[in-house]
């Protein structure tokens, strides 16, 4: 009988408003230096929301061949760059891997807005025959998976996920299972998002969950009593998952082991029973009790309802220990990345375990009596060995993951 | 002149300059895909108003494409 397969994380690539690359990202996030900015990519005058986690210093040509840049959208550029950084970080050359044992599990919520808008301009200004051909291949949410597969010759079992705020966490959940079930030995997972265009912002504003701020100061405040919604962000985070023995055989550095995983759905956004079940199941699979969890990386998206529901769920699961267990939502620093969310917060968990630094939930100044959690509002030094990560969609899809430091 | 225009279109697609020469085949040598040949056709339409169709079964050289463009331009002038 085959030995039990285990999944570890061996590489990280980050393209984020807080920083491009792991070191600059962590420097900003661990210190809680806000990367929320007034939008500069287009003139936001007249928009009820004029702020975002916008990336201003990304040069795709540094990491992506020009040929791929031309035929893909910004959200795929971010993915290419994050993927290349993750592979370099893992010291993993895919040329030496069986391409049928490498998979891709990416999340994305809304596709490529730059190329989408370009198509509309061409259609209405020049006519249908002049619409660029990349509309066929570049705008839809599976494009990053396809282009990364082409670039690196990846042929293993792969999927893309469109599931609102848990798109990226779904990628992790199913990527883990693809290794556990023996489909893959290596998985590129995480996700990407690039919605900061006139049309993209318009659609997200219409969805009604964005914080209505025109200036960035104090705009994103998860779990604070005066929170008023999500601050949208762009970027990509890619993680390299590997089967443990595969990683050991090549002497890879291991950031952490994914011990627990669960996915549930609540019947409506105000229900929390499904999130309770997901947290409990993730811990049960990991054989970890609530008293052994050192840190909770919350969904903490910053809407009144979602934060309240999550706080109830955490309180029910952690009981008397709730006032002690640290909870943080580092996305307050860089914004909500939807498709790249989950994986991005996982990076904070991995680096908290590595460095003993817990990143803060910035702008948390006024506690909410409906969210009686121990929110980490300033950077804390603490030994962290086991982290529970929550991700939850607007309509109640929950993904919970338990990651632990490797035993020495 | 037509070659220089084709060269610019190919450069804009990200093809390395040293690979672009008159005898280079679009599929075999430059490894273009079908969306890239559609983009070339759109650029030719925009830049000189001619319609050139690329068949996936027939690999053309850059010189072949330039000849088709020149023929199409002549046909327009002789109308």
Protein described:
The complex is a heterodimer of chains A (408) and B (79). Chain A is an alpha/beta fold and 408 residues long. Chain A has helices spanning 22-31, 66-70, 74-90, 113-126, 143-152, 167-180, 198-207, 244-249, 273-286, 304-318, 331-334, 343-355, and strands spanning 7-16, 19-20, 37-38, 51-52, 102-107, 159-161, 186-193, 235-243, 256-265, 295-297, 326-328, 357-358, 374-375, 380-381, 386-392, 397-404. In chain A, strands 1, 2, 5, 6, 7, 8, 9, 10, 11, 13, 15 and 16 form a twelve-stranded mixed sheet that branches. Chain A has a two-stranded antiparallel ribbon with strand order 3-4. Chain A has a two-stranded antiparallel ribbon with strand order 12-14. In chain A, helix 3 (74-90) packs across helix 5 (143-152) and helix 9 packs across helix 10 (304-318). The longest helix of chain A is centred in the N-terminal third of the chain and has 17 residues, at 74-90. In chain A, 57% of the residues are buried. The model of chain A has no long low-confidence stretch (mean pLDDT 97). With 79 residues, chain B is mainly alpha-helical. Chain B has three helices and no strands. The chains are: A alpha/beta (408), B mainly alpha (79).
């Amino acid at each position: 009988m085959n030995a039990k397969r285990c999944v570890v994380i061996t590489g990280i690539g980050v393209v984020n408003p807080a920083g491009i690359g792991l070191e600059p990202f962590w420097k900003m996030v661990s210190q809680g230096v806000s990367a929320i900015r007034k939008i500069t990519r287009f003139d936001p005058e007249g928009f009820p929301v004029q702020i975002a986690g916008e990336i201003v210093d990304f040069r795709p040509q540094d990491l992506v061949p020009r040929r791929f840049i031309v035929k893909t959208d910004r959200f795929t550029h971010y993915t290419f760059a994050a993927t290349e950084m993750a592979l370099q970080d893992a010291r993993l050359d895919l040329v030496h891997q069986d391409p049928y044992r490498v998979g891709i599990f990416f999340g994305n919520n809304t596709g490529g807005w730059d190329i989408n808008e370009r198509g509309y301009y061409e259609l209405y200004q020049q006519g249908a025959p002049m619409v660029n051909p990349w509309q066929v291949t570049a705008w839809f949410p599976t494009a990053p998976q396809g282009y990364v597969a082409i670039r690196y010759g990846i042929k293993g079992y792969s999927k893309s996920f469109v599931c609102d705020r848990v798109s990226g966490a779904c990628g992790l959940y199913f990527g883990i299972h693809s290794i556990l079930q023996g489909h893959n030995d290596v998985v590129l997972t995480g996700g990407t998002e690039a919605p900061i265009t006139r049309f993209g912002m318009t659609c997200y504003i219409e969805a009604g969950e964005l914080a209505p701020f025109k200036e960035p100061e104090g705009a994103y405040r998860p779990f604070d009593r005066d929170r008023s919604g999500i601050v949208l962000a762009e970027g990509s985070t890619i993680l390299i998952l590997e089967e443990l023995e595969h990683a050991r055989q090549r002497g890879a550095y291991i950031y952490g082991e994914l011990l627990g995983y669960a996915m549930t759905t609540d019947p409506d956004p105000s229900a929390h029973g499904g999130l309770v079940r997901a947290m409990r199941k993730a811990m049960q699979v990991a054989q970890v009790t609530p008293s052994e969890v050192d840190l909770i990386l919350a969904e903490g998206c910053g809407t009144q309802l979602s934060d309240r529901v999550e706080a109830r769920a955490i309180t029910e699961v952690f009981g008397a220990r709730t006032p002690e267990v640290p909870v943080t939502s580092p996305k307050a620093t860089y914004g909500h990345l939807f498709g790249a969310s989950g994986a991005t917060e996982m990076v904070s968990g991995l680096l908290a375990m590595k460095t003993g630094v817990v990143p803060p939930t910035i702008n948390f100044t006024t506690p909410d009596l409906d969210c009686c959690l121990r929110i980490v509002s300033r950077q804390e030094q603490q030994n962290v060995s086991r982290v529970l990560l929550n991700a939850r969609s607007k309509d109640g899809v929950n993904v919970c993951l338990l990651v632990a430091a490797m035993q020495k | 002149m037509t070659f220089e225009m084709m060269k610019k279109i190919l450069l804009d697609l990200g093809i390395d300059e040293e690979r672009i020469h008159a005898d280079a085949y679009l599929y075999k040598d430059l490894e273009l895909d079908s969306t890239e040949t559609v983009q070339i056709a759109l650029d030719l339409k925009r830049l000189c108003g001619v319609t050139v169709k690329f068949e996936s079964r027939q690999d053309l050289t850059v010189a072949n494409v330039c000849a088709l463009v020149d023929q199409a331009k002549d046909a327009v002038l002789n109308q």
